[in-house]
């Protein structure tokens, strides 16, 4: 039995800005369609947008994005060069922000962050069941 190679896409995003978001989401949509995982588009795009927005707001702006196919779905990781790890907390009802990671933690099968020698990686994993549950 032949083992399928791991399909993944790695992007270096220097000085990520708001104008970059739609282009990155389009690349992610195309990857998911090529990998026949388009039912995961909604949650994956939401997660990518949240992680990149956090980079934009809380770091110098340089980051790397990894989108990897898994046997049951997708794994997305964003690496930046700020040491502070994000925290997922219940959003304050009056706050204007702070809901993104909480929402992503509810939609993804797994959401983790890990320190690196220089910076951190925040990643999430979504399986096919998550896409079906969302009706996407």
Automatic annotation (TrEMBL):
Keyword check for Lipid metabolism: no
Keyword Glycosyltransferase: no
Matching InterPro entries: Anti-sigma-factor_SerPK, HATPase_C_sf, HATPase_dom
Domain of life, per lineage: Bacteria
Keyword terms of this UniProt record: ATP-binding, Kinase, Nucleotide-binding, Serine/threonine-protein kinase, Transferase
One GO MF term: protein serine/threonine kinase activity
Histidine kinase/HSP90-like ATPase domain mapped to chain residues: 18-125
Pfam family, one: HATPase_c_2
Xref: PANTHER family: ANTI-SIGMA-F FACTOR RSBW (PTHR35526:SF3), ANTI-SIGMA-F FACTOR RSBW-RELATED (PTHR35526)
Protein name (record): ATP-binding protein
């Amino acid at each position: 039995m032949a083992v399928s190679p791991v399909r993944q896409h790695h992007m270096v995003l220097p000085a990520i800005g708001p104008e970059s978001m739609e282009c990155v989401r389009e690349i992610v949509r195309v990857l998911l369609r090529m990998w026949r995982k388009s039912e995961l588009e909604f949650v994956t795009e939401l997660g990518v947008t949240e992680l990149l927005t956090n980079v934009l707001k809380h770091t110098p702006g340089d980051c790397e994005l990894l989108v990897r196919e898994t046997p049951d779905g997708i794994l997305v990781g964003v690496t930046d060069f700020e040491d502070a790890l994000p925290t997922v907390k219940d959003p304050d009802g009056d706050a204007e922000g702070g809901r993104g990671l909480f929402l992503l933690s509810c939609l993804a099968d797994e959401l983790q962050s890990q320190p690196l020698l220089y910076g951190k990686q925040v990643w999430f994993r979504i399986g096919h069941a998550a896409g079906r549950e969302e009706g996407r």
